[in-house]
């Protein structure tokens, strides 16, 4: 459930004639996608979700670069491409539909041009791990967003969600736990260090 204090801010972001872009950031398993969907459902016809995960490098490229075992780390994304898309969404013309990629977990690959963003969409939500990083191409993200919310969740719950997610997509429980410990939690610590740069600290109501 989204509390009234957050809904009030969202009403401002979905009103008026100007496009707003809201970033949702948090560690893996924090509930960014769940919050995105909750906002989408609360403001029907006014929101399009454009996840950062659509900019995962393809598996064949991760293998070529020797990064397949670290999939999800900051250097396993096309960060420059992501910034370029955000800029297009910020500067979108009235007669233009912008298309964005999506990441399909069932095949562990991005799919190009799967999300359409009409020009009259008042609020675009983009959610991902590295929106508040201040180096490389990632530093170009923050200036293109109107607000960034940090999604907070209990660490033990977040890790259990991740294990369950990995199991649901084919890993056995032991492999899922190892991936969480060796990959997801490494990224989580880096992401958590950016928490204070967010405009809003989001907490789910009970």
How would you sum up this structure, described in words?
This protein has 206 residues and is of the alpha/beta class. The protein has one domain (4-202): P-loop containing nucleotide triphosphate hydrolases (Rossmann fold, 3-Layer(aba) Sandwich). 36% of the residues lie in helices and 19% in strands. It has 6 helices and 7 strands. It has helices at 4-13, 32-42, 59-65, 79-90, 155-168, 173-192; strands at 20-25, 47-49, 98-104, 109-117, 123-128, 147-151, 200-202. It has a 5-stranded parallel sheet, covered by helices on one side. A hairpin with a 4-residue loop joins strand 3 (98-104) and strand 4 (109-117). Helix 5 (155-168) crosses helix 6. The model has no long low-confidence stretch (mean pLDDT 92). GO terms for molecular function: kinase activity. Residues 21-202 form the Phosphoribulokinase/uridine kinase domain.
């Amino acid at each position: 459930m989204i509390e009234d204090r957050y809904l009030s801010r969202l009403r401002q972001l979905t009103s008026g004639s100007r496009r707003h872009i809201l970033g949702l950031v948090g560690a893996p398993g924090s509930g960014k996608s769940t919050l995105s969907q909750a906002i989408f459902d609360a403001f029907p016809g006014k929101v399009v979700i454009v996840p950062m995960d659509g900019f995962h490098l393809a598996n064949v490229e991760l293998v070529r670069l020797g990064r397949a075992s670290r999939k999800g780390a900051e250097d396993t994304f096309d960060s420059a491409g992501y910034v370029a898309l955000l800029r297009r969404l910020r500067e979108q013309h009235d007669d233009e539909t912008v298309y964005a990629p999506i990441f399909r977990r069932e095949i562990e690959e991005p799919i190009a041009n799967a999300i359409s963003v009409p020009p009259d969409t008042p609020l675009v939500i983009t959610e991902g791990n590295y929106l508040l990083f201040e180096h490389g191409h990632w530093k170009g993200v923050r200036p293109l967003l109107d607000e960034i919310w940090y999604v907070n969740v209990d660490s033990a719950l977040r890790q259990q969600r991740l294990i369950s997610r990995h199991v649901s997509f084919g890993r056995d429980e032991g492999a899922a736990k190892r991936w969480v410990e060796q990959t997801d939690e490494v990224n989580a610590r880096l992401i958590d260090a950016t928490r204070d740069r967010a405009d809003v600290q989001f907490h789910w109501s009970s």
